[in-house]
Amino acid sequence: MPPDQPTVLLTGFDPFAGATRNPSREAVQALHGRVLAGHRVQALELPTVFGAAWDTLQTALATHRPALVVCVGQAGGRSGFHIERVAINVDDATLPDNAGQQPHNRPVLPGAPAAYFSSLPLHAVVDGLRAQGLPAEVSNSAGTFVCNHVFYCLMHALATEPYMQGTRGGFVHVPWLPEQGSPGMALADVVRGLQVVVEVSLEG
Ligand code: PCA
User: Fold this and answer.
1) Which pLDDT score is estimated for 199?
2) Which of 5, 21, 123, 182 is deepest in the core (most CB within 10 A)?
3) Does 74 contact ligand 1 (Cβ within 6 A)?
4) What is the phi/psi pair of residue 50, to 5°?
5) What is the mean pLDDT of the chain?
6) How close is the Cα of 176 to the center of ligand 1, in Å?
7) Is residue 28 lining ligand 1, measured as CB closer than 6 Å?
8) pLDDT at residue 3 tops 60
């Protein structure tokens, strides 16, 4: 049963590649339970593991029936919020995931379309973030690691599952925390920015 109050599902990943922190997980946890534009935020942690990450998200989609899903991941080396435009049907890892899997040149979903576009209002989100003094841009590649994998599975489900019709979804990459490397972004700014992403996506 969908909850009475409409829900926004925000996901973040656990730390990977030997790190101890992942700003995506910390930022979505900070927003758990908040009400943004009349929608209650449900935060969810995904394992940085091909397959298992999507299994976890899929279960949450069926439970919460969210109006909006924003998956968030860390993209070390990028500066500012990267609002991802496109998910591609490719798993091609340059490092092992948290279960030691390192697929090469493999489809996420065999036989499924080559790509899906985000259904977030990309430019309105970027404008909203910049208006708050937060650096942001539209990105044309979410990579080919676990973030793109989850993004692709999400957009495929939104396109094909009858119960997901009318749900908007997309993916946002955020920079390292300042402690992790440069360029970094303070956790408070990541949290503030994700709030903008949600509000603009619900209103836009
Ligand atoms: N970033 C990785 C996976 C988990 C995360 O936070 C990625 O960009 O694929």
Assistant:
1) 98
2) 21
3) yes
4) -55, 140
5) 97
6) 11
7) no
8) no
